[in-house]
Amino acid sequence: MGWFDGWFGSSTTTSDPLKSLDPKLREFLERESPVKIQQQIQEAEQAAAAAATKAAAAAEAAISAATTSQTSQQNSADAPTDSRPKVPKESLFQDGRYAHLWKTYRPYAEIEAESKTDHEKLMDVLDGYKERKHNIGRAALENCALQQEEWVNCMKSGSWEDRMQMCRHQVQRFEKCYTMQTRFLKALGYQSVYNRPAQVEEDIQMHADKLYQRMVEQEKAIEAAKQEGLPVPKFDLSIPGAAEMAPAIQPRPDLEKSWKEKLEQLPEEERAVEEAALRADLQAKAEVAKNVQKLWDEQEKEKQQRKAEGKATVMDRITGAFGSK
To answer: Where is the composition biased (Low complexity) (predicted)?
Structure first.
């Protein structure tokens, strides 16, 4: 064998230093030579790079497929929005769930309106007009809270002279504030539109207070000019925004004449505001009359329908008899 020759000094010479090695050892060294190890490393790196490329391509394909699926799902979710069953706003599930339970739903206000008598409908219209006047007074009181507080403090702990006069000056300031605030609120259309957002009404109330404060400053400037002997400054006394809300209803000649007589008794700086308030009141009354006439027309239509169907009531006959006379 090979290693015996090496031990006993074999004279065989060769240029291959590995020739004298054991064939198995030589085979092992050839298999594990650095060149082949580097080749194996390169092959492993190439295989890893190919695997990474395949993995990246697979991941990109998966992402693309997921994006396409998500887009299609979104489109499919957006597309049938109109085809979803509609539910009323009272439902907590606006996506159409339990729509079959809401098919026969009717708002309580609608049912209550149908069950009301003609007298109740008429009273609702009149109560709405009264409530508007009440709300205007309440808003004017809120805007005049400082003047009212001044009056109350004067009555509690005011000077002896003011209390002897029943706080006359404070009462006058409060009454003037309340009157002018009421006029501004009417002229600006406060509570003139049914079911208007509360924020809009609050903005109108704040704007009315701003106009009143501006009017007070103008009066102070006019008074100061008179005391100093200077020319009286001229101010724009019109109400911003009142022209756009000018009512289409024109007053009767006799009513317009009474308006002029009333306006002539007021100071010049208050006439424009009072006239705008009068016109706003006329518009509100015209709306009430329009609603009342609408109720009467509906009642007459229902009465004629019952008469045509042969279901006329005793009240229909009585009203018809008095109407024929």
So the answer is: 59-74
